[in-house]
């Protein structure tokens, strides 16, 4: 959640003042929490030990505080409660590898929800790293999941584009990087920078991977938005996503195997999307 994309989530694109105002009159703020996905409900009940009847109010109170930190559409629309990684076909492999001692980084982890599901599923928390631009979200994750004393993961507040970022201490040590909704926030030039960062962070061994989900399109290209320091975002289809990794691979001497699926946006969001918008899931493995 390093930045946000209001067009994707149904917001107007009139500028950063509107999204930065913390107004609850905007289209991407939903005042009611009507559904808690089972995969995250289970984490709250069995990992965080919150009684079932208290989960709703607990989430709501933390969400309100998170909105005051920065009003991302994923916070206002409760999207942080939908676990992306858990539903991907690589998930069981990832859990096994991390239990065996490999290391994981959530790039743009927000409140750390994906990491808490991994811990619940048996991954030692010390094998997990999370990073986000805003340290308040990292701290608030402990409050959301009631695990300040038991979670031994490493959280790093960092700007991924800074040459002096503390992320450099992880170079060459990470086996799995999760980028759930990160690349799509930027134009293609910065996406290339992220891919270079991923290349540096991952272990230089066959099978190191980056995976995630992001906004894509059957008509790939640049799309304007109003809350990112970039003036545009690049939405991919499978071919253009492959081309991006081919370009970085040619530059760095690393070969990548790219898998993608392009699907319709969730039913609840279709009224907010143009007819060409899709969700792109990807897994990119080092050969």
UniProtKB/TrEMBL annotation:
The keyword Transcription does not apply. GO terms for molecular function: transferase activity. InterPro entries: Meroterpenoid_MTases, Methyltransf_25, SAM-dependent_MTases_sf. It comes from Neohortaea acidophila. Belongs to the class I-like SAM-binding methyltransferase superfamily. Residues 1-10 have a biased composition (Basic and acidic residues). Residues 105-204 form the Methyltransferase domain. PANTHER family: METHYLTRANSFERASE AUSD. Pfam families: Methyltransf_25. Keywords: S-adenosyl-L-methionine, Transferase. This is Methyltransferase domain-containing protein. Residues 1-22 are annotated as: Disordered. It comes from the Eukaryota. Transmembrane segments: none annotated. Pathway: Secondary metabolite biosynthesis.
